[in-house]
Amino acid sequence: MLNLKKDPVVVIKICMLLMIGALVFSLVNMAFAPRAQAQTQASVDDLPSFRNLDGKIPNSDNLPRVSLGSFLRNIAETTGIYAFITDKAEMETPAGLPVTIFGWQELLMVAVGFLIIYLGAARNFEPLLLIPIGFGTVFVNIPFAGMGHAPHGMLHII
Fold it and tell me: Residues 113, 138: contact at Cβ < 8 Å?
């Protein structure tokens, strides 16, 4: 049996062998994997580049302009930050059923999850139990993530 604590050179050699093995594996898979072919219908002059900086992107005539404010508001509303800030947010399940999310309750549970992770990692109070419990608490209480929703949520699958 290798005594890895007393011989760091062995640990480095094993890590290097694993990295070389992963590199060889990826190169072999890349050699036999099917490749996507680029379409050559557009001419070189139509494509935007440093040579034609004033050129338009093909097929971009009907796209609406997006302002920075609307972009940030859309990101906040679709990632769950909006549900944390406001008192409640509405969403629909894949089956079409309405769900009400109370942001302050989930924010409180995320804080409890981080406290559990802190106690397990920094204070060493039963880390093998508290760290997974804390991460599960944080993941399940992220609004709109659906981590604990049956049957397709990540934590339900695990």
Answer: yes
